[in-house]
Structures are given as C-alpha cells and as structure tokens.
Amino acid sequence: MANAHPIFATIIVLTASFLSAEDSKVAAQGGAGLRMEVKTEHAEDLRVTKRIALAVAEGESPTALLAPAQFTATWQGQLNIEKRSRVYFSFEGIGAAELFIDGESALKEDSKLGSSESDRLRLNSGLVPVKVVYTSPENGAGHFRLIWRGRDFGKEPLPASLLKHVSDEKLSQATLVRRGRALFAELKCAQCHDSASGMPEVSEMAPSLAGVGSRLDEAWMEAWVKDPKNLRAYARMPKVLSNDDDAKHIAAYLKTLTESAPKVIAGDKAAGAKKFHDLGCIACHRSESDQDMATWNHAPIDLFNAGNKYSDGALVAFLKEPGKNYASTRMPDFGLDDKEAADLASFVRGLAVNKAVLTEKGDASKGKALVASNHCAQCHEGVEESAASYAPLAHLSSKSTAASSCLGDTGKGAHYGLLAADKAALTAFLADQQAVKSLAHFNKAEYAERQFENLNCAACHQMDDDLSGLTKTHPLSAKYSGEAYKAPGKGATPPDLTFIGEKLRADWMTQLFSGTLERRTRPWLKQRMPAFPSRAKNLAEGFPAAYGVIAETAKATPMEEPGKQLFGMVGGFGCAACHGAADAKPLAVFEAAGVNLQFAGARLRQDYYHRWMRDPRRIDPATIMPKYFVEENVTTLSEPLDGDGQKQMEAIWNWMQELNE
C-alpha cells in the first residue's frame, strides 16, 4: 500500500501541478532511498524512505496509513558503494532487528539493540543488496537506526546518499494513493466530506472572512471569487460559481464584513526593495511577470497582483502577522517590525499590474445569500453557516460519481482545475478504503516531511544533495538591493538541513518554529528563520522521528572540569577565535564567524555534538571547523584530562550547559 517519493523521505511533493515532473519520473523508475514495507497484524503499507530509521511513540501510527499496533518494518534496496570498503554495522533502538548484506545475515539482535556489532564486512564498489527487518515491541512504540563505522570514520547513521531502490507497479500504485491522500487534505476536501481528523492538515481551515471587508479590495475579491486561477495559476481555492455575474454580489457582501481598519504606516519603497532581496523573498515569490517560472523548483506565488489585493494598511498588518486571520498559512512570519513591514508593503504595492476594476457594484444581500448557498462556511470562518449535505467518502469511490463531483469539469461542486494526474491520484485514494480510513491516523515523521515540502523549506535550505532554491533565484532580486549580485561566502547562507532530525533537540526546535527564541543563532545572516506557530510542535517532534531518534535530555556532569580552558586560546583548542560565548565576542574570526555557544547545549543533541567534534568535515565537507582528533581517542592536546579526547569533549559540552543556565 501507499508510498511517496523520497524528497525528504516519504511524502510526495505538492508543487506546480502538486507533483513535479522529476518526482513522477523518480517514483516511476526508482531512485534514492529504500523500499519500506510496514506490516501490522491486519494491514500493510509500502513507501520509499530515505533513511533506515524510524521512531514511533506509543499510540502513534507506525506509518500514516496504518493504525497504531505492533509492527514489522522491512527496508530493501541497494547500497551504492563508491569504493571498496571494510565496515562494521550495528543497531540502535529497542525491539528486534536483522541485517542482510548481499542476501546473507550479517547481524541479528533482540530487545535492547546495540550491544553487539557485525563482523568486519568487505563491501565492493557498486550496488550492494541490503535488507533490514525490524520488529517493534508489543505496544507498538519503537525506535531504530542502522549504524556503521569504517577504518577512516567513526560510528554514524548510514548516510542517505548511499541508499537506492528500484520501483515496480505495486510501489507506483502505492505512491499514487499516498499522493491522493495528501491532495485530499491539501484541497480541504474533508471540510465538506466528513472524515476522521488524525491527519493534522485535514482540520486546517481556509482564511477567516471575519473583517475581510476592512482588509481586501472589493474589485480584487470579485476577480478572485470569479476564478482564483485567473489571479494565481496554482491557487488551492476552487472555482465555485457557475454564473460569473454572482461574483460581484459576493464581493459586495464580503466588503460589508468590517472591523477596525489596520493602521496605515508609510513605507520607503527603495528600503523595501532591499529588504525583499535581503530576506530572500524571491525564493518563494515571482516579482515580475517576465521571470522564467523554470527558475523555481517549487511553483512561486506571483506578487504583481498582491498590491491590488489589500486595502491601505492591511498589507503591512499581514506582513507583520501572517497567521492572524489564517492560522495554517504557509506565509512565513519573519518577526518584522513596523518599518520593515511598511517598507516591504510599499515595494510590493509598486509591483502591481492590471489593477482589477469592479464590473459594477454588486448587491450585498444577494451576496450574503450566495455565500450561504455555496456553503462558504464549510472552509471559511467569519460567515454564517448553512445546512449542507455532501456525499460521504464511501460514495465517491466510483468513477461515475467522481466525474460528476469536484473531480469533474462540469456539474455542481467546487472545480479545482486539476491536472489529469491529480485527478487520478485522488480517484486512487478514494477507491482505497484503507487509505481513506487512514485520515484518522497520525505519524509525526511523515507530517514533518510533508510540511518540509508544503512550506518550501528547500527554498532557503540545502537538504542532502539538493541545493537551496535561493542559489538559482536570488540573483533575480539583486537589482533591488542596488548592488550587483555576489554569491555568498562561507557561513553566509542558511544552514544545511541534511542532519536536522539527529542534530537539533525537539524542545529547542519547538521554540524556533513557534518564534519564541530570545536570540538568533546566526544574527549575521540577512535571511531570517521565520516562525510557523500552528505547526511548531508537530514539526519539532516529527523531524527527529524521521531520523529514528527519541527525546534527549541535555546532561551535564556536575564537577570541576576544564571546559572553559579547552574552549580558550591558551591551553585549549582555540574555539574562542571563531565562536562567541554568551557576551564574549569571537577573538580572531577567519573567513566566517561560528555560532555563539551560549545556547549550543540547549540546541544540539549530545550524540550529534560528539560526531561533529570528532570529524566536522565528515558531516560538512565545506566547513572551516578544524578536526581535533588525530587518532581514535587522541586529540591535538595531550593535556588536560591525560589527552583523553572523549573526556575533553565532554568537558566542553558540560561547560556549554552552564553557559545556558
């Protein structure tokens, strides 16, 4: 059953047509990641995952399409070995697991995993068949990672870049079903067709219409209601009117829904243009109609209609607090102050083209009746609800019903203007009763992976071998800064997210995603990490689950240790040259500053910290961070702690914990 293409491990991407051509190609022909089949006593699921790892809490679904239960997960595919290697494998987690290399059992363990490791194995260059079978404890709560080590590197999770698989008809069909499930939630089908709501996106509402008349331009609303795709090619809102003339009446009614008008703040257009470039807004937005859509990996939202959309002051208010009237908005909250928001609003208004003009003033009373008869309250708060009756999901599984419903191009219902591939995916989902029932299930890892794509995190961040979208789009907005584009140097781009789930602590990520951190980790960057408050907790818990790690409590040993000395320039590793520590500034920055270590202990997972300190370039080949270990447990310092590298790094870790207190 159901699968998704592995851009971030499991879920198919919603892009320009809700699925990019490249995703379709990889899903059909195979590619990165391994096949992962998960079975419980009564059902099974099939997908592609980019890592041999998982973490499932008690009461949580082992995958998005399965009910909570004890489960067995089987990963299968090939390791793409660049050169002949001699390695050892081990497990991490709880449950039972067995590893097969080239068809032969290489390691088997039960209960608490990690007490042993495989014999030394020789892996020849090329594709080496691999299979891993993991069974959770009886209560269904389990976590698992496959670990390896070699002659020139220490223990680490098996890199995602090595994993390959071949697709087949069963996997392709599972991919199609899972894609339809994602579309069902994304298009808010559940607001009309009752369904369970374990999947968080199923419960998300469209923007509130309360007070909308004080925010949006009436002529723009008429054009939008008439056909959203005329203003935004990939609009999620459907066309609901069979008579275009009704749009003016609805717009007239919506204009009567008022509240206190937003404060009007004058902005500086030139300053806003520079801020637009500095923040990297071009990564998600097309600012001019002649910009080539192919430059973006993810369908951009055009801004040359946004200036016509908002009333005076409303665009500033929206930029300052995007989620105020739309909790599940994908628009990032950058924590802009009044001046920044006003400057940006002035710039965006200056991009406006083809301002909409009312055909003629509509009748608000007719509009109110039309809002009721079209059941707008099913998706939008702020308008009166009306009695509505829609076909249950079970009745939508037949092709004949689908053709006359929202999936068709004619007849009653909402019309989304879906491509044939999108209709096929939704039809496949609706025909699969296990998939339909799975809307009641929640898997944190898959949620984080879906939202990584939905929020377009790759616009600013590199992930695995995929460069950020900004590498291609940022030159387009350089002219707004008043300077020629210059490629950013070391440390001048948002961080690589390849290791996000195993690197960052969930409690710290919750603060990061909710926008409540008191201090920026990289204050020198012109781009900022935005907040997504409505998704913060699920994202923060989902990323670690996708990497097979569980909650970690920061541990510090309460004893006198030379951590501060080891951090320093005299008798230490010289960390103070590039890194600040609380109020202490770095002493001799070379090429690029490092992060201030005051909150490093609260931000980083301890196991990742030790991997990084042992061999930074193993994790980031481009880093300027030195490697201090010269042998297995020997650093460049023979003192203190008798030159014991592990103890020295523990001492620095413990000192960083004290910095955060």
UniProtKB/TrEMBL annotation:
* Record-linked InterPro entries: Cyt_c-like_dom, Cyt_c-like_dom_sf, Cytochrome_c550/c551-like, Multihaem_cyt_sf, PA14/GLEYA, PA14_dom
Q: Which SMART domains match?
A: PA14 (SM00758)
Family matches, as SUPFAM superfamilies:
Anthrax protective antigen (SSF56988), Cytochrome c (SSF46626), Multiheme cytochromes (SSF48695)
Which stretches make up the Cytochrome c domain?
175-258, 267-352, 362-446, 558-660
**Pfam families, A to Z:** Cytochrom_C
Report the residue ranges that make up the PA14 domain in this protein. 29-162
Which molecular function term from Gene Ontology is one that the record holds? electron transfer activity
Keyword terms: Electron transport, Heme, Iron, Metal-binding, Transport
Metal-binding found in the keyword field: yes
What name is this protein filed under? C-type cytochrome
What broad taxonomic lineage does this protein's source fall under?
Bacteria, Pseudomonadati, Verrucomicrobiota, Verrucomicrobiia, Verrucomicrobiales
